[in-house]
Amino acid sequence: MTDDLISKKELLDLTGISYGQLYRWKRKNLIPEEWFIRKSSYTGQETFFPKQQILTRIDKILHMKDGLSLDELADVFSPTLGEVEMSAEQLMDRNIVSLASLELVREAGREQQMYALEQIMMLYVLEKLLLSGDITRQEGSLLIEVMSEHYYRFANRASELLLIRKMGVPTFMLIGAGAELYFDHGVKVVLRVPLGTFMEELKLKLG
Fold first, then answer.
1. Is residue 188 very low, low, confident or very high in pLDDT (cuts 50, 70, 90)?
2. How confident is the model over 6-17, as a mean pLDDT?
3. In the structure, what pLDDT confidence band is assigned to residue 65 with cuts at 50, 70 and 90?
4. Contact at 8 Å (CB) between 8 and 48?
5. Closest CA to 47 of 100, 11, 17, 79
6. What is the pLDDT of residues 125-138, one digit of tens each?
């Protein structure tokens, strides 16, 4: 078994949650159905999970469940976009985006009077990656283009953002979560992040 998976027994032992909690959270869509992976083992069929994703998700649930109902948590973890519109000023007031990121959006010709949730998501991802130093301003412009043009395609399903470079030339991609990708030896994968994590943070900020 690879280190990327964790068995159900190991998960329950490590996190201290019960079998009942795990499956109640599954029924409430706090844990995606596709994370329950049935595989053969020496004891027969056993359930495994993507290790890093399930541990991160359970940690969040345990820390947030006292302040939010299970239905509210399910909404936070859902990749589905809601009906939200906010101005640049409102977004800055909530520390979702800075003037520097908005200026980059203006330079890319993507400035809006009011931003819908999928556009707010693009601004939030841009802001986070610029602040972390994971991308340059030039790459930020590419990110704006790819998310503005294609992010809507993943509005109701989990997706990942990928940044690759070949001979120093960057390219962004949006792909379905967990998709297998293969490149030639000249390609370096600089960044591969699940966009659901950004959406969870953003929904909490939007309240």
1. very high
2. 93
3. confident
4. yes
5. 11
6. 999 999 999 999 99
Q: Residue 143 corresponds to which tokens in the numbers above? A: 């990110």
What would the two tokens of residue 9 be? 């027994």
pLDDT of residue 68: 80
Here the tokens at position 186 are 């000249």
Could you give the CA distance from residue 72 to residue 66 in angstroms, rounded to a whole number? 11
DSSP string, 23-71: HHHHHTTSS-GGG-EEEEETTEEEEEEEHHHHHHHHHHHHHHTTTS-HH
Exposure string over 146-173, b if 16+ CB within 10 A, otherwise e: bbbeebeebeeebbbbbbbeeeeebebe
- Residue 76, number of CB atoms within 10 A of its CB: 17
b/e for 2-14, b at 16 or more Cβ within 10 A?
eeeebbbeebeee
Question: Per-residue pLDDT for 155 more than 90?
Answer: no
Q: How far is CA 150 from the centre of its chain?
A: 15
Place of tokens 């610029």: 130
More confident residue, 137 or 199: 137
Sheet holding 5-7, edge to edge: 5-7, 44-50, 37-41
Q: What type of residue sits at position 89?
A: E
Q: Which residue has the tokens 């809507």?
A: 152
